[in-house]
Design brief:
The chain is mainly alpha-helical and 333 residues long. The protein has 14 helices and four strands. It has one domain: ABC transporter involved in vitamin B12 uptake, BtuC (Orthogonal Bundle), CATH 1.10.3470. A two-stranded antiparallel sheet has the order 1-4. A two-stranded antiparallel sheet has the order 2-3.
C-alpha cells in the first residue's frame, strides 16, 4: 500500500500540501490572535455575517444559472457574468430617468418593480440570444469548442455594452425607502441587506419549486438526465435548453439589480468578478446541483465577508479586506 501511495504522489503534490498546511496554520494563528486581541466587538461580527449573507445570496442567484446550464449541456457558460451585467446596466438608465422626474421618490415600489422588470427582461433576452446564436449551432461539437465559444461570447458582450453604454462607472440613484436600518432582535441591520436576503431567498425558493414541481421543470430534469431518451418521450429538447437559459437569465437579472442597489454602481465589467465567484460557488456546491449552488453561494459570501478580518487582522496585515478574493478562492479550492 505504501509503495502504491509513493508511486501516485509526486513532488508537486507534496509541495502543494506543505503550502496548504502552512496557510492553514497561519489562518488558525491569525484567528486566535484576532479573537484574543478583541479587535472586533460582537456587533462587528454580526455585521460581517449579515453582509456575507446578503452578498452570498446574490452569488447564489447567479450560481443557479451556471449550474442549470451545466446540468442540461454539460458546459460552463462563461458569458453568464455578462448576462448578469446587462440587466442592471440597462436598468440604470430607467432608474436615472425616474429619479430625474422624481417618480423614484414619489412611487418607489412601482419604480423598483419597473427596474426589476426591465433588467430581468434584458438579461433573459441576452441569455436566450447567446444560446440560440452561439451555442445551439455547436450542440454536437466536442466539449472544448462550446467552452471557447462561451469565453468569446463573454468578451463580445462586455465590449458590446461598453460601446453602447460607455466605459465609465455609473452610480445608481438612491432609493429613499431602502436607506437607513431596522432593529431586529436588538441588532441594527441595514434595510437593503435585509431586502436583498429576503428577495433572494424567495426567488430561489420559487426557482427550486418551478424545477421540482412543474411539468416544464420535470422536462428540464429529464433533458439533463438523458437528452436522447427525453426526445423519444416527446420532450422538445431544444425548447427545454432555451428555457433553462431563460430561467438563468431571469435570475441573473434580478441578482444584478440587487447587486446594483446594494453596491450603488454599475459598469460594463461588473459581471466578471461576481460571475467568477458564482461559478466557484456552483462548483463548491456540486456543479449541476441547484440547492448545492445556492448553499455554495451563501458559504462563499460568508467566507469573503468574515475571513479577512478573522484570519488576517491578527497577523498584523494592513487592509486585510483587499485580500478577500484571494481568501475566498483559496478556501473553496
Amino acid at each position: 500500500m505504501f509503495q502504491k501511495w509513493k508511486d501516485r504522489v509526486t513532488l508537486t503534490d507534496i509541495v502543494m500540501w506543505m503550502i496548504g498546511g502552512t496557510l492553514l496554520l497561519m489562518c488558525l494563528w491569525g484567528s486566535v490572535s484576532t479573537i484574543r486581541a478583541g479587535l472586533y466587538t460582537k456587533s462587528h461580527w454580526i455585521d460581517f455575517v449579515i453582509f456575507g449573507l446578503a452578498q452570498g445570496s446574490i452569488y447564489s442567484l447567479i450560481a443557479t444559472g451556471y449550474t442549470m446550464v451545466y446540468g442540461v449541456l454539460k458546459m460552463i457558460n462563461f458569458a453568464h457574468g455578462e448576462v448578469f451585467m446587462s440587466g442592471p446596466f440597462t436598468g440604470y438608465f430607467l432608474a436615472m430617468a425616474m429619479w430625474r422626474s422624481e417618480f423614484l421618490d414619489k412611487h418607489p415600489i412601482m419604480a423598483i418593480i419597473a427596474i426589476f422588470a426591465l433588467a430581468m427582461f434584458i438579461s433573459t433576452m441576452v441569455a436566450y440570444l447567446v444560446e440560440k446564436i452561439a451555442y445551439r449551432p455547436l450542440r454536437g461539437a466536442p466539449r472544448l469548442i462550446p467552452l471557447i465559444t462561451a469565453i468569446g461570447a463573454s468578451f463580445f458582450l462586455q465590449y458590446l455594452f461598453r460601446g453602447l453604454y460607455g466605459s465609465g462607472i455609473n452610480a445608481y440613484p438612491d432609493v429613499q425607502i431602502l436607506d437607513g436600518f431596522w432593529m431586529i432582535l436588538g441588532v441594527r441591520v441595514l434595510k437593503i441587506q435585509v431586502i436583498v436576503i429576503i428577495a433572494a431567498i424567495l426567488m430561489m425558493l420559487l426557482l427550486y419549486g418551478f424545477i421540482m414541481l412543474t411539468k416544464v421543470g420535470k422536462a428540464i430534469r429529464a433533458v439533463s438526465e438523458d437528452k436522447e431518451a427525453a426526445a423519444l418521450m416527446g420532450i422538445n429538447v431544444d425548447a427545454m435548453i432555451s428555457t433553462t437559459f431563460i430561467i438563468g437569465g431571469m435570475a441573473a437579472g434580478a441578482a444584478g439589480v440587487l447587486y446594483a442597489l446594494m453596491y450603488k454602481q454599475v459598469h460594463f465589467f461588473m459581471g466578471f468578478i461576481p460571475g467568477l465567484k458564482a461559478f466557484t460557488a456552483a462548483v463548491l456546491g456540486g456543479i449541476g446541483n441547484i440547492p448545492g449552488a445556492m448553499l455554495g453561494g451563501v458559504f462563499l459570501g460568508l467566507i469573503e465577508s468574515v475571513a479577512p478580518a478573522l484570519f488576517l487582522d491578527g497577523l498584523g496585515i494592513i487592509a486585510p479586506y483587499q485580500l478577500k478574493d484571494a481568501i475566498a478562492f483559496w478556501v473553496n479550492d
